Amino acid sequence: MSGPRGSDRAVNVTDGPLLKPLFVLSIPIVLANLLQVGYNLADTFWVGRLGSDAVSAISFSWAIVFLTITLAAGFTVAGTVLVAQNKGAGNLDRISEVAGGTISFVVGLSVVFSILGYGLAPWLLDLVGATPGTEVFRLAVTYTRTMFLGIPFVFGFFIFQSLLQGWGDTRTPLYLMLLGVVLNVVIDPFLILGFQNNLVFEVAGQTALQSSLYATTGFSGFGVQGAAIATIASRGVGAVIAMGLLLSGRVGIQLDPSDFLPTRGILRKIFRIGAPASIEMSTQSLGVTVLTALVAIAGAESVAAFGIGTRVTSLVVLPALGLARGTETAVGQNLGAKQPGRAKRAVLASAAVTAGVLAVVTVAVYVNAAAIIGFFITGEAATSVIATGADYLRIVGATYVFLGVFHIVQGAYRGSGSTRIAMIFGIVGLILLRVPPAYALVAWSDLGATGVWYGIAAANVLMVLLSGAYLLRGTWTEGIVDRERPGPTPTPGDD
């Protein structure tokens, strides 16, 4: 059964003001995303102590692992949508069945990915450019295989995060994410470096203790593999606690063992919602990969500028991504409650806030473009990279408002269960509208990398105009669940 009990922190988005609950839902998601960035930075910092081969190995590996995660993350969207709409519809007894079925499906999928990823790791790494027989390749295979062995734990945490988001609680996943990051930061240096040349002991002035421990144990760390072990361990702790919370009912949703046996109907809905969402989410990483290859036509310095520029962009749009996830919940619950007008107002409010914030950010980025790029790079080629990267921020940054609103619109489609529409606009916006014009401008003009920047900027504007125009048709507000019991009476204008 499911119901508000224990330490349930669910936010009410079906009654009263809209902006405050949207912010309460979205801010923890933004903070969790920032913690994820910190998570990755910690791994990179400690692996960097092993040398450039180790860093390169992780870079090759992460391209594969990230694609796998995005493919599976799409199915967690199904959990968010089904929980949100059933809660809004008052179908509280059905939420346990939905949540348990989604967990079983995603964890089962992760086991398949784990087996395939472990076996195909060498071939996949060769495919993304790692050279077989090199030290980088050997390290990358070890790291990738270790990560794939722990993929079920990673997915277990993500599905918990999605289910709680649908319920309206984004704070509990944030606390678990914080626990995972702290644990990862603490154990990373010891699993990677062991008791030899470990900066922790040097900073703490305990080199004598380090020598003593090494003499006793001979442990010099697991190297690159240690970073993967630390990630799996910290995620595993979070996943185990998450399952415990769901089984106890302390977070509002309560599962019984029987709920983990999904019905054919639940599986069909999970696949129908999740498969398009998986494709949509993977288009972003695919699009960046293709654009990187196009930028490479203009030279290595342009690739460096593009890499820095995309990282800055990813940080800038984090609030929009968080608000988009909050919008998913607000749309899902209100459509479940038969309040399409309120769902529409949630989308418009999120879009307005996103546009306002990013308009201010755009001005700041435009004025400080060169300084921002210069913060990330030094050396002989810095001048050229800074100039090219500054052009990227001024051209692409001018369309941040459009990019942010596009994410909100996509969140509206996902929250309504219209993930096929979101998939179509994801492919059109992030691949078809970007890649062909960018290729034409970089290959058939003398603009160089700047041609790619103009191609990306034009696509950012066009894709939100297309997706927004379709949104205004209102056909996405039908919802995907039926009410089983009376709920809140729709307010005027919600028809």
What does this structure look like?
The model is unreliable at 1-6 and 484-495 (pLDDT under 50). It is globular and about 65 Å long. It has helices spanning 19-48, 52-89, 92-127, 135-149, 151-167, 171-193, 199-203, 207-217, 224-248, 264-295, 300-316, 318-336, 340-367, 369-375, 382-397, 400-416, 419-432, 435-443, 449-471. Helix 2 runs antiparallel to helix 3 (92-127), helix 3 packs antiparallel against helix 5 (151-167) and helix 11 packs across helix 15. The chain contains 19 helices and no strands. With 495 residues, the protein is an all-alpha fold.
Could you outline the blueprint of secondary structure elements for this entry?
Layout: H1 19-48, H2 52-89, H3 92-127, H4 135-149, H5 151-167, H6 171-193, H7 199-203, H8 207-217, H9 224-248, H10 264-295, H11 300-316, H12 318-336, H13 340-367, H14 369-375, H15 382-397, H16 400-416, H17 419-432, H18 435-443, H19 449-471
Helix pairs in contact: 1-6, 1-12, 2-3, 2-4, 2-5, 2-10, 2-12, 3-4, 3-5, 4-9, 5-9, 6-9, 10-17, 10-18, 11-15, 12-13, 12-16, 13-15, 13-16, 14-15, 15-19, 16-17, 16-19, 17-19, 18-19
